[in-house]
Design a protein that fits this description.
mainly alpha
């Protein structure tokens, strides 16, 4: 009977030791899992922060480029206006319609500049420049 009790006590002690070891392993694995989750969260936060920074830089570059393009286009409009307004002679009868068209287009173009896409504005300005050059060539004859 004593040997049976001793054997059971030894078996119980071994089971308790296994349970303690398993609890220790579970605790270590939980700590490892929490650490991995924290690292993943930090990496995710860093990635989001980097994406926001890059997005902000790209947006700043886009805004700077847009302002530069708009400034160039405004300068072109002003130059065209000055060129056309500084003509030595008033517009002839045949040129009156183009002169009126010019005086109508430039103020409206400048007033509504922000409503045009850059491609539309550049195309419109190129076409208008061609129109002015054609009129200048025709009126010089």
């Amino acid at each position: 009977m004593k040997t049976e009790k001793a054997r059971l006590a030894l078996s119980l002690a071994k089971d308790k030791l296994r349970i303690t070891n398993l609890r220790s392993q579970i605790s270590c694995r939980r700590k490892t899992l929490v650490e991995m989750q924290n690292q993943e969260d930090n990496a995710h936060r860093n990635l989001l922060s980097n994406i926001k920074s890059e997005t902000s830089l790209i947006q700043d570059k886009i805004n700077t480029t847009q302002r530069s393009i708009i400034a160039q286009q405004l300068t072109m409009c002003r130059t065209l206006t000055q060129f056309y307004n500084l003509r030595p002679t008033p517009p002839s009868v045949s040129d009156t319609s183009s002169y009126s068209l010019f005086n109508f287009l430039i103020p409206n173009l400048m007033a509504y500049l922000h409503t045009f896409s850059h491609e539309e504005l550049i195309t419109s300005l190129e076409n208008f420049c061609r129109f002015l050059v054609q009129k200048a060539v025709v009126s010089s004859y």
